[in-house]
Amino acid sequence: QVQPVESGGGLVQAGGSLRLSCAASGGTFSSYAMAWFRRAPGKERELVASIAWARGVTYYTDSVKGRFTIARDYAKNTVYLQMNSLNPEDTAVYYCNSNPPNVRSWGQGTQVTVSS
Q: For residues 16 and 86, is the Cβ–Cβ distance under 8 A?
């Protein structure tokens, strides 16, 4: 079973940028779409951005439009999330999964902390 492996999180000041990566362990991504989700402290996990693997059509939740960009690299079998103009409300654990998500593919995620 393909397992997404997230990386690239860290601590950044408000207004800063980070790029998250999601690599496939144990196979290749073959789902119709891949996505980034996040869970902020005390909140439910939410869909942040999604990309159709073949056609590249993207979706963003309203709070990140214009600031985040999702992309995929076929050759590297990797999904990225470029995050710019970060603010403290973006603080969360970020997860990569198919969209809709596979409940058996939730990984450890990568922590993003934005200081004010």
A: yes
> Which is it for strands 58-60 and 46-52: parallel, antiparallel or unpaired?
antiparallel
114/111 Cα distance (integer angstroms): 10
Closest CA to 73 of 112, 21, 8, 32: 21
Tens-digit pLDDT profile for residues 63-101: 999 999 999 998 898 999 999 999 999 999 999 999 999
pLDDT for residue 60: 98
Rg (CA), the chain: 13
Residue 13, pLDDT score: 98
Amino acid identity of residue 20, one-letter, is L
For residue 45, the number of C-alpha atoms closer than 13 Å in the C-beta half-sphere is 13
- Beta sheet of 110-115, edge-to-edge order: 10-13, 110-115, 92-98, 33-39, 46-52, 58-60
**DSSP states along 47-102:** EEEEEETTT--EEE-GGGTTTEEEEEETTTTEEEEEE-S--GGG-EEEEEEESSPP
